[in-house]
Amino acid sequence: MRRSRRVPDNKGRQLLAQGADERLATPPQPIEGAVPVEGSEPADPSELDPPTPSPSVEAMEAEICREVLAIHIESYSRAPANVLAYVLGDLVVVLLDGLELHPSEEFLITEGHPETVTAVRNQFQQAISASFKSAVERATGRRVVAFTSQQHVSEPRFAVEVFRLEA
Fold it and tell me: How distant is the alpha carbon of residue 45 from its chain centre?
């Protein structure tokens, strides 16, 4: 004997529903008008969602380079000449080589104030650190627990971003 109960749907209407245990005990009924496929069997759940392989270190490094470059261009409106990323265990190091400075930064350096440019850039990097951390977390699949950035505005001009990953 089947037990039924009335349950509300998402529009407040009462629907007749069978208990879950009864539905599971009843074999599925063929759908009227459906054409059976010869040799078809229900899929093995382990075959439906094969485990996603971890990306290679090279793939992570390439993704980090792309993401950090995009953030840098968006934030500074200028691109460094080259971006290199290294994933080293629990550490990620990104080198932005050949920084292009703004005219106002060039002026400050010419006037003998490179430390001002360095300080402002370092503070700005900390202010937008969430963007950099998110990019590294997406690429590595691991949480960033610390981030630091350092700019070198005299020749050769470069910046180094260092990320510490959760062990």
Answer: 27
Gap between the Cα atoms of 130 and 121, Å rounded? 15
pTM of the model: 0.67
With tokens 């840098």, the residue in question is 72
Helix axes 129-140, 57-76, angle to 10 degrees: 160
Phi and psi at 4, nearest 5°, equal -130, 155
Match 């990306």 to its residue by tokens: 55
At 149, which amino acid appears? S
Per DSSP, what are the bridge partners of residue 146?
Answer: 164
Q: Cα 108 to the chain's mean position, in Å?
A: 36
pLDDT digits (tens, 9 = 90+) for 83-127: 999 999 999 999 999 999 999 999 999 999 999 999 999 999 999
Rounded to an integer, what distance in angstroms lies between the CA atom of residue 144 and that of residue 136? 7
pLDDT, tens digit, 9 for 90 and up, residues 31-87:
666 565 565 555 565 566 666 677 899 999 999 999 999 999 999 999 999 999 999
Peptide bond preceding 156 in cis form (omega within 30 of 0): yes
> Which H or E element spans position 159?
strand 158-165
Number of Cβ within a 10 Å radius of residue 163: 27
